[in-house]
Design a protein that fits this description.
It is built from 6 helices and 3 strands; from the N terminus they run βαααβαααβ. The protein is mainly α. It has one domain. The protein is globular.
């Protein structure tokens, strides 16, 4: 019988690859956090913009918002392997060796995930057909999302 344990697991904790639905729910949770951070950023920049800057129209402002988005994700991944959405759904990000990703891996993951989404979501949809449920950005950054179910506690 072949070993069905994914490569990105720690022997200490039972885990399995994160499925597409769980990924989408994590993104929904994290969208709330990112939008809040964007609102704080917009409020902080208001005295400088006079209220005239618009994301998508003003390249510098758009770049600042993208940097805030990246900073939230990368800081979370580097700090503990989880964003707030990932914590809620008991998912962590790990490298192929099981460690936390570096800044370069975070940048590759972030940028490739934008391509994954921009290609009509096909970079995400490949997880449905991949044995390890990995997306384009998982493969490009050599990382993976690992679902760690709650441990069953023994009653005393």
């Amino acid at each position: 019988m072949p070993d069905e344990t994914p490569r990105f697991t720690s022997p200490a904790a039972p885990s399995r690859p994160c499925g597409l639905l769980r990924r989408l729910l994590i993104m929904l949770y994290d969208t709330v956090v990112v939008v809040a951070l964007w609102m704080l950023t917009a409020a902080a920049l208001l005295p400088f913009s006079g209220g005239d800057w618009m994301a998508g129209r003003d390249p510098l402002y758009t770049a600042v918002l993208a940097l805030v988005w990246f900073a939230y994700l990368a800081w979370s991944w580097r700090r503990g392997g989880m964003t707030l959405g990932m914590r809620a759904w008991r998912v962590r990000l790990a490298t192929e060796s099981g460690s936390l990703p570096g800044w370069r891996q975070c940048a590759i993951r972030f940028l490739t995930s934008l391509v994954s989404a921009a290609a009509a979501g096909s970079g995400f949809l490949v997880a449905l057909f991949d044995r390890e449920r990995r997306t384009w950005h998982d493969r490009m950054s050599r990382t993976s999302l690992i679902h760690q179910p709650r441990s069953k506690r023994r009653k005393p």
